[in-house]
Amino acid sequence: MSHFSILLGQFDPTPSPSMATSKKVITREEWERKLKEAGVRKDDMNRIVMNFLVTEGYADAADKFRAESGTQPDIDLATITDRMAVKKAVQSGNVEDAIEKVNDLNPEILDTNPQLYFHLQQQRLIELIRHGKVEEALEFAQEELAPRGEENKIFLEELERTVALLAFEDLKNCPFGELLDVSHRLKTASEVNAAILTSQSHEKDPKLPSLLKMLIWAQNQLDEKAVFPRINDLSTATLEDPAV
Q1: Which intervals hold domain CTLH (predicted)?
Q2: What is the SS3 string spanning 153-215?
Q3: Are 55 and 203 in contact (CB under 8 A)?
């Protein structure tokens, strides 16, 4: 349970009989007093920050934060550099290099994850098509991807969508043009990043985004019964006075 949820439970938002149709008003003073009473430990906050920096691959920032806060990361920061090199290779379209780097880190990552390997090979095919290498793309699809498509219906459907790009001259405006969008590279890179983290016995997703989603959910739940200082801009985390 989050500290915000605990805080939420400290209030009784049920209107009094004389305010049956109105919401309970929680003043800024009362809200801030309850926030202090919630007792969020700084060490807990530091661990959440470190978890985000490590998971997202900010090696330099994580190292500086360790020095400033004394918070120790739960993995070797040197491994972040290697992981980010893989991610950067995929994002730049150099998938073959990314595969080599993954195998250098841990060959079992791709050996035990056929879906990830297929998606990397699919991205290689997309890059060939992007650069107009039609014959090479067809040969690669037939030799590397078609056998995997015969074993897996979902892989076959993805392969068919990718090869269909070759039927269009205007790739950007074709029905499957999203495969050529940078977002598809980012999706594949994120999948590789998660697999590497899992192989290192580390959580694949940072805790911070989930906590922020919980904050939004808790505020929306309380908003049905009470008027209270809200955080509307998550980037600044500024409390805004209730509108009464």
Answers
A1: 79-136
A2: HHHHHHHHHHHHHHHCCCHHHCCCHHHHCHHHHHHHHHHHHHHHHHHCCCCCCCHHHHHHHHH
A3: yes
Q: Give the C-alpha separation, 93 to 128, whole Å.
A: 10
Q: The tokens of 140 are what?
A: 């690669």
Token pair belonging to 67: 């020095």
Owner of token pair 């801030």: 32
| Domain locations in the chain as residue ranges | 3-52+206-240, 76-199
Q: Which residue in the block uniquely carries the two structure tokens 């605990």?
A: 6
> Mean pLDDT of all residues in the chain?
88
Q: What are the φ/ψ torsions at residue 72 (nearest 5 degrees)?
A: -90, 130
Number of other CB atoms surrounding residue 22 within 10 Å: 10
Q: How far apart are CA 204 and CA 54, in angstroms?
A: 10
Residue range 161-188, pLDDT digits in tens: 999 999 888 877 788 889 999 999 999 9
